[in-house]
Amino acid sequence: MSSLKKFFIEQKAQSTVEYVLGVFILTIVAYGAIRAFGSALGISFKKTASIRTGMAGMGP
Predict the structure, then answer these.
(1) Model confidence over 1-28: pLDDT tens digits?
(2) pTM of this prediction?
């Protein structure tokens, strides 16, 4: 195999690995953010829902 062709094949493989690692890291960060802020967001949404559907609220 010519060295130029081999170079391009290796570059494609390297790019693929970099994209996979990037997606993996973003997934881990997103999971951590959801775990850290998920309960706080749930509480906030429940408060908002109770205000909207309460006596003085707007209703569903």
Answers:
(1) 577 667 666 777 778 888 889 999 999 9
(2) 0.53
